[in-house]
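> example.struct
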């Protein structure tokens, strides 16, 4: 018998049939003697519609009212889920964020959870009740409804699992787990059975959008085992058929490289001929930061005649804002700005890199053999990222997948 938090994402509760399907899974877990807290997202597409309603009223809406609008999608699915469970003879009820309460700070639109009261939930769980909790929402210190940022239901689920000291947090979604690469690009990509929080964080922030980054951080901090699995597969969470995100020491057969991630949403900017004196990087990246531009990879050339070039990447959608900011930038002198908006970042991720040499070299050699040019390189202890022309994304990801032995059965 275990205490499980089971979270169903938007596609898993997209219509009544799917809510019934999700309820069947919960019923199987309950019948097996487990205590279950269910966390639900809004039906897929609903949150987007609600966000759109707000923007139609005013582009400068009151963030507190935005939260009361966009949190409503989850209220609908939690009530429906409770009914579906009741229909199956399960004692279930919905608990809105304020009723538990899930307390957050006052930062509307991207609030952070501060505490969750679990006394009442524990009491009910011990009485064989199932609690259904809407993800994404909480209540502020001032008693207003807050939301946790897009994709925040994952974080609600992991936070509840941590607060309840649950044995596991199952995240039901529309893929069977986390794969070694995007299966749409690499037909030989495979589901990863176990992955460390560290690797998952790298993959989550690299655009393999299975889990909200913040939920992985929270799972790591509280050592909550998180399983990613598909609600369209036959198995329930307790069959452990998905990908388990866990601590490094629980992973026996460690691959050197666990996965290849790619992000095609990259643009490269080179600011040519800035002065090579102290404070230039602070000034350049300072103006970009105050314009809320997200800078990722950065390289500075060696200096010639007291001048140097700065090359960095930003999300493609922020390219125009970045260039405009630099053009208007207070007393920043440079010769010209060169941009390329068709770049992709390819990353190989694996904790095995910590203890194995030659991982970077395999990457460079593989790309060289395919005649793919590398523009920027950045590394961390468990990741090597390179920037290439977007046109070569498929070729690069496939070749690297093979080169690191991930194609094998
Ligand atoms: N419904 C919210 C969103 O789409 C939260 C979630 O599903 O995680 O962002
Ligand atoms: Mg999601």
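> example.seq
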């Amino acid at each position: 018998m275990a205490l499980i938090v089971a979270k169903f994402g938007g596609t898993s509760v997209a219509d009544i049939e799917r809510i019934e399907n999700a309820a069947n899974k919960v019923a199987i877990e309950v019948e097996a003697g487990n205590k279950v807290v269910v966390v639900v997202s809004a039906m897929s597409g609903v949150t987007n519609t609600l966000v759109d309603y707000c923007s139609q009223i005013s582009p400068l809406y009151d963030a507190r009212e935005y939260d009361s609008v966009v949190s409503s999608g989850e209220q609908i699915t939690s009530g429906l889920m409770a009914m579906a469970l009741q229909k199956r003879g399960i004692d279930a009820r919905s608990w809105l964020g304020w009723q538990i309460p899930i307390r957050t700070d006052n930062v509307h639109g991207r609030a952070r959870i501060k505490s969750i009261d679990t006394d009442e939930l524990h009491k009910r769980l011990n009485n064989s009740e199932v609690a259904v909790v809407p993800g994404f929402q909480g209540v502020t210190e001032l008693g207003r409804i807050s939301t946790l940022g897009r994709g925040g239901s994952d974080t609600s689920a992991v936070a509840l699992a941590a607060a309840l000291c649950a044995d596991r947090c199952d995240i039901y979604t529309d893929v069977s787990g986390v794969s070694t690469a995007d299966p749409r690009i690499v037909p030989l990509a495979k589901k990863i059975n176990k992955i460390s929080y560290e690797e998952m964080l790298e993959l989550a922030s690299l655009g393999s959008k299975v889990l909200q980054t913040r939920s992985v951080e929270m799972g790591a901090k509280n050592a909550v085992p998180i399983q990613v699995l598909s609600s369209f597969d036959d198995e329930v969470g307790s069959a452990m058929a998905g990908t388990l995100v866990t601590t490094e020491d629980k992973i026996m057969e460690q691959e050197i490289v666990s996965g290849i991630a790619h992000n095609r949403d990259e643009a490269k900017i080179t600011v040519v001929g800035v002065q090579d004196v102290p404070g230039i990087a602070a000034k350049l990246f300072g103006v970009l930061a105050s314009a809320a531009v997200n800078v990722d990879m950065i390289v500075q050339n060696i200096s010639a005649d007291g001048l140097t070039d700065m090359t960095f990447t930003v999300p493609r959608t922020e390219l125009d804002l970045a260039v405009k900011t630099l053009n208007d930038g207070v007393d920043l002198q440079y010769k010209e700005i060169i941009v390329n908006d068709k770049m992709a970042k390819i990353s190989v991720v694996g904790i095995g890199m910590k203890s194995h040499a030659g991982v970077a070299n395999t990457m460079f050699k593989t790309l060289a053999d395919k005649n793919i040019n590398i523009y920027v390189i950045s590394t961390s202890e468990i990741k090597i990222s390179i920037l290439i022309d977007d046109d070569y994304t498929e070729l690069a990801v496939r070749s690297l997948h093979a080169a690191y032995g991930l194609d094998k059965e």
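> remarks
Residues 10, 41-42, 47, 73, 135-136, 150-154 surround aspartic acid (ligand 1) (CB under 6 Å).
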